[in-house]
Amino acid sequence: EAGVTQFPSHSVIEKGQTVTLRCDPISGHDNLYWYRRVMGKEIKFLLHFVKESKQDESGMPNNRFLAERTGGTYSTLKVQPAELEDSGVYFCASSLGVGELFFGEGSRLTVL
Amino acid sequence: GDSVTQMEGPVTLSEEAFLTINCTYTATGYPSLFWYVQYPGEGLQLLLKATKADDKGSNKGFEATYRKETTSFHLEKGSVQVSDSAVYFCALIYNQGGKLIFGQGTELSVKP
Fold first, then answer.
1. Which member of A31, A45, A103 has the closest CB to residue B44?
2. Cβ contact B84:B29 at 8 Å
3. Torsion sign, CA atoms B68, B56, A40, A16
4. Which residues contact B45 (CB under 8 A, 6 or more apart)?
5. How close B75 gets to chain A, by Cα (Å)?
6. Any chain B CB within 8 A of the CB of A107?
7. Which candidate in A48, A88, A95, B43 could, as Cys together with A55 as Cys, close a disulfide (CB 3.0–4.6 Å)?
8. Which residue pairs, CB below 8 angstroms and at least 24 apart, start in A55-61?
9. Under an 8 A CB cutoff, do B43 and A31 touch?
């Protein structure tokens, strides 16, 4: 069974540009989460989808970040326009009901 | 607010050495506690967990005991291997399906 997959694995963009990260959860997992690790610090929660609905988006840093999960399958996280402080590793995770979270490998974003 | 604090890394050990990675938490309630591990080039994986005070989680030779009196969940292994080289994250959650609160991660490097 395929795990959580994330794309791209690494993205390097200029300040002010736009980047879209994609996450494909494990098939059948209704819960999808985005987390971020900035500059080797703690991993912080961004938001939680249940199917296509945003259950909790309290961790989204500002309105430059837009997450979607159309159809309740894959999710995208768009950063527009990107700033230097957005650099970090963005992790996606999925779970079945209230079970264990399964994480992807992360997408490393570098903003120059 | 709730938080998790881990010992600073990187930690460098020789093979077969004893490992302790300290983790303490601040929480208003009674969370479940976790250790996640990220091996090079891979996603975060659940290593072990404990859901209530005095529970001991164990996996792959690693152990951690949920100590409510000291609000700690230290990770230990009696004899580390080169293959244990990874970043280790301590985390808490109040209820499954909620959001994980992570520590900053501790990088472990084991030399042959």
1. A103
2. no
3. negative
4. A103, B36, B37, B38, B39
5. 17
6. no
7. A48
8. A55/A31, A56/B99, A59/B99
9. no
Angle, CA B95 vertex, CA B90 and CA B99 arms, to 5°:
60
Confidence of residue A1 (pLDDT cuts 50, 70, 90): low
As a whole number of Å, the CA-based R_g of chain B is 13
Tell me the chain A residues in contact with residue B44 when contact means C-beta distances shorter than 8 Å.
Answer: 43, 91, 93, 103, 106
pLDDT, one tens digit per residue, over A16-71 is: 999 999 999 999 999 999 999 998 888 999 999 999 999 999 999 999 999 999 88
Q: Once rounded to an integer, what is the mean pLDDT over residues B35-64?
A: 94
Nearest CA in chain B to A104: B43
Nearest-CA distance from A58 to chain B in Å?
A: 10
Q: In the structure encoding, which two tokens stand for residue B92, read together?
A: 């808490």
Sequence-separated (6 or more) residues with CB below 8 Å from residue B57: B33, B34, B35, B48, B49, B50, B63, B64, B65, B66
- Model confidence at B97, in pLDDT bands (50, 70, 90)? low
Token pair listed for B66: 């949920």
A33 lies within 8 A of chain B by CB: yes
A42 at the B interface (CB within 8 A)?
A: yes
Q: Which residues of A touch B101 (CB under 8 A)?
A: 45
